Amino acid sequence: MKHELEEQLEELERQGISRRHFLKILTAAGIITAVGTQKVHAFSSDAKGKIVVIGGGAAGISMAARLMHWLDNPDITLIDPSDRQYYQPGFTLIASGVYQPEDVWKKQENCIPDGVKWIKDSVAAVDPVMNQVTTANNEKIPYDFLVLTPGVQTNWEKVEGITHDTLGAGNAHSIYDFEGAQKTWKALQEFSKTGGRGIYTDTYTKHKCGGAPKKICLLTEDYTRQHGTRDNVKLDYFTAAKELYDIPFYTPRLLEIYKERNIPINLNVRVKGVDTAAKQVHFEKVETVGEEKVITPFVEDYDFFHFAPPMSAPDFVREAGLGWTEGKLAAEAWVMVDKATLVHKTYPNIVSLGDVAGIPTSKTSAAVRMQVPIAAKNLISLMEGKEPVEKYNGYAACPIVTDYGHVLLCEFDYDKKPVHSFPFSMLDTSKEQWAAWLLKVYMLKPMYFYGMLNGYA
Ligand SMILES: Cc1cc2nc3c(=O)[nH]c(=O)nc-3n(C[C@H](O)[C@H](O)[C@H](O)COP(=O)(O)OP(=O)(O)OC[C@H]3O[C@@H](n4cnc5c(N)ncnc54)[C@H](O)[C@@H]3O)c2cc1C
After folding, report:
1. Which residue of 64, 73, 218, 278 has the fewest CB atoms within a 10 Å radius of its CB?
2. Does 210 contact ligand 1 (Cβ within 6 A)?
3. Which of 355, 441, 444 to mutate for ligand 1's pocket (most ligand atoms within 8 Å of CB)?
4. Is the pLDDT of residue 34 over 80?
């Protein structure tokens, strides 16, 4: 299922025309505006310094691209071990049969901006006092300024009874993985035929796209309805959170949808493990009674199970002393940055954004899109010896797919107030909309690959 525009872009790419030359097409299609691209080019700086970017995902590549536009003398090295650039929001759509696996990735070598030096290796350590990065191959790379964007570390081993390699065993699935999403799609279709009980869960740590587990649950429900098998399946949603969703503008409608679709919601429940042979999930109900935390274990049978792995900052972040050491963000060592400027609180030559950043907002690429120009401008100010003045308002978005054809487009800021960045002002955005489905399925992916990663969107 592809937009005609995307087909055309891919055909040009097959003919060997660089992905980076598609700007005019995107501008013509209104995906990025001419005004927007002029704005990007209206700013420049002759600041100098060696910049090292750790991690070339949504945040790292977009930052490198912006800095290439804005610096007259850029000296940028990007370290990332991956051959592929994944559009991860597409994993949910693979798991529901809307996208094919090959729709969501491109070769990393084609995504790295021209002029950026790529070291294809993993970072093993950072010494923020000596301003030096060490890779897994023991290469030592000095820097003047560091952009810390390695995303999350998925800690699969924290769910007992299953590993990344055994994903799918005992019909236990996770869309938080490219292969996992493909297995989920096969299993979802089979589950719709055989029927039984589906258990859908998230995790207790901050995780990327908090909406994703809810989306795959609602899409399963709609899939069974469309295939006339809804009466054969019982679906239950278990969340580790104390409410299904915590953005007041959108929560009432989401709760209503779960009720209308007969999916009971269980709160404050963590997955401890899964017995894939017995097809049982081991849960812990976590309650606070007075001052005390009371944990009550219980077990539920399932026929289909979806879970999310606990997530944290990569180990090297904690080991380098770059993570929060107190407060809610300390347990997973999310990077200790100022939530407005995205500059590190101890080391002012480090900026961090994207999923690894320790800021109180949702981990989404929509958030990354808004963080990039702010972090890039602030980094340039630091390079110029000035104070960072650009401020991020916490914008994040989560398009919650509620069925095949509708999306509840949740956009909000640090105050959990709704913010609208797409031209849907004539629609009631507190409810699911078809227009938002079109945006999610056809527009956001080209915007990611051709706009954002080129430093324009
Ligand atoms: C199932 C799912 C659904 C999602 N749905 C949505 C959605 O609907 N909307 C939305 O906006 N967002 C969604 N997201 C979230 C979005 O994909 C992330 O927020 C976004 O990719 C974060 O960008 P990032 O650059 O911080 O991390 P990533 O894009 O994950 O990139 C991290 C990069 O760092 C590299 N790296 C990791 N460790 C190291 C190391 N030690 N050394 C060097 N490099 C390293 C990796 O190879 C990778 O290239 C979803 C994610 C998933 C998994």
Report:
1. 73
2. no
3. 355
4. no
